[in-house]
Amino acid sequence: xxxxxxxxxxxxQPGRSLRxxxxxxxxxxxxxxxxxxxxAPGKGLEWVAVIWFDGSNKYYADFVTGRFTISRDxxxxxxxxxxxxxxxxxAAVYYCARDRDLRGSxxxxxxxxxxxxxxxx
Amino acid sequence: DIQxxxxxxxxxxxxxxxxxxxxxxxxxxxxxxxxxxxxxxxAPKLLIYDASNLEAGVPSRxxxxxxxxxxxFTISSLQPEDIATYxxxxxxxxxxxxxxxxxxxxx
Lengths: 121, 107
What we know:
- The complex is a heterodimer of chains A (121) and B (107).
- Chain A is mainly beta and 121 residues long.
- Chain A is 0% helix and 48% strand.
- In chain A, the strands form two sheets. In chain A, strands 2, 4, 5, 6, 9, 10 and 11 form a seven-stranded mixed beta sheet that branches. In chain A, strands 1-3-8-7 form a four-stranded antiparallel beta sheet, with no helix packed on it.
- In chain A, strand 4 (34-39) and strand 5 (45-51) form a beta hairpin.
- Chain A is globular, with a radius of gyration of 13 Å.
- Chain B has 107 residues and is an all-beta fold.
- In chain B, the strands form two sheets. In chain B, strands 2, 4, 5, 6, 9, 10 and 11 form a seven-stranded mixed beta sheet that branches.
- The relative contact order of chain B is 0.35.
- The interface between A and B is medium-sized, with 21 and 21 residues.
């Protein structure tokens, strides 16, 4: 079955960087668009970024453009989110999610369990 | 960005009750609308896709209707295990956007 396992979360100071990973299994990773979605404590869901099946296209939410970079390694079945210049408001549980199709239409069919990012001095 | 307005933000109902949640999009999104269930401390789970289609393995007491800008999610007979927060989400345009959520509790 589809399994997505995030890692890399933790406590980081404002302005510093963190890289999240999402290990995928149970499906052909290179055939699906992949997303990052976040949820601040006690708040709703917020889309962060998408990458197409082959990494050829990437799109970001306005609030992370220029600070975060989504990438993937299809040989390792792994999705990444490089987060730079972190702010207090970036604190959240970050979920990776698999799309329904190649390009990542924004249809979150499967989710990981999430990894918590805390931004604090 | 397309705004998704979900109501109510919370509700309390008895076991066996019919529960209805509405979601309104700020522009026509056809049927590009999903519903998710999120239990405390867990990841969201897709329940309904394309506004009215039940995801595999999801109990038939869950249903969805609507198209264009107005959508409805229904639990026909509320069960104790349905305690959760429910979100609508549009994927007609990037960025995909979510409603604010509806927290469902047992009375």
